[in-house]
Amino acid sequence: MLHRRTFLTGGASAVALSSVLRHTASAAPGDAAYVMGYFTESPNRVADRYALHLAVSLDGLTWTPLNQGNPVATPTAGTGGLRDPHIIRKQSGGFAVLATDLTGTDFTRQNQYIHAWDSTDLRSFTGYRRLRMHSMPTHTWAPEAFWDPARGQYGILYSANSGGRDAFHVNYTTDFVTVGSPQLFFDPGFNVLDGTVHTHNGVNYLYYKSFVDGRLYGARSSTLNPRSFTTYTAGVVTGGIEAPIVVKANDRNEWFLWGDSFSPVNGELYAWRSGNIATDSWTPLTKDRYTQPLNAKHPTICPITRAEHDDLLARWGAPTWNRIKSYNYPDHLIRHQDNAARIDPYPFDPYQDSQWRLVPGLASSSGVSFRSVNHPDRYLRHSGYAITLAAPDGSATFNADATFTRVAGLADGSWSSFRSHNFPDRYLRHAGYVLRIDPISTASDRADATFQVGY
Fold it and tell me: pTM of the entire structure?
């Protein structure tokens, strides 16, 4: 799959890559949860959906996709699709949603417009419109808005190519309907994209991707004035990474930096942690600490209240399916492939191979059975102690083979383990990435037999 990054590295004549400038102010009193907006792609394009998706989280690390992972809003004009959505809470209440006007991956396309909606509570979206940001013969990528109290206006930031390279531009507005003229906001003299602007204790932080070395950097300024930011970090990187977001924990001085990976596979989010945004100190999180929404790309994260979190779940619903993560290989998910059960690193296609419905056990309603989402006539069962995906044959033996007792995780009680119904001395575990049931005796065995049921 082509990426905007490809065009930036092609020289001055290439179309430059976008910037995503995610502005997240420090958590306001009462904020207790988060909403994420995103579009979706997967490695082989099975999941490509260029529309607004939502997920919610109480801790900002573990996410519940809404509406079964389907879109909640789709543009009806322009290209008919969106990338790089941004959600901002307006000063007067409610939210504004902005997004790049682009469907698919034709990054050579010129477009001076962005998508915009209003929303009272993110349960519905009204006033759809396109905003013209400039008249330059270039793109208008990854719009973001922030409130500038010194001006009494919102700034809408986006990436456009001028002077032979991509830089960040800003237009000011009071209503997201009428916008002022474009101004240059950040141009360090080389291609930059995909930053995040975060305000804490009167200091404004701009995180962005540099195309000098592909790393994510942080800059800061005492104001939100255009061209006032100075880089202060040495940069972080994990593979082909872009689209950083900085999010503060609602109840403590802890920050998380998210980045979107497009290489070596497309559709994977990474996260880092810092205890002090003012210092250059980011530690990568392992995937036992966080879970991204399925196929999420180039997201935005906005703090919300617990009531808003609960109302969004009530409106859109949590998934009726689960994904199941390995404890000692937390980047691996349980999946089926050619009717064999195994764990493989996320992401992959078909992504539906990793989706399961945990239903009452076929042999005992006190247990669980794993029903495939994309092959709903089939269940995981053991045969010769190996786990396979098979259709029930109506026998008591099959039902027992496909039933497991869910217990506290053998390696971590906050996770889960699954004991075989008809071989209760054996547990579901992975061995050589393949699933089977075995007796468990060692610490390594316990880790192999521990899983996290999530989304």
Answer: 0.92
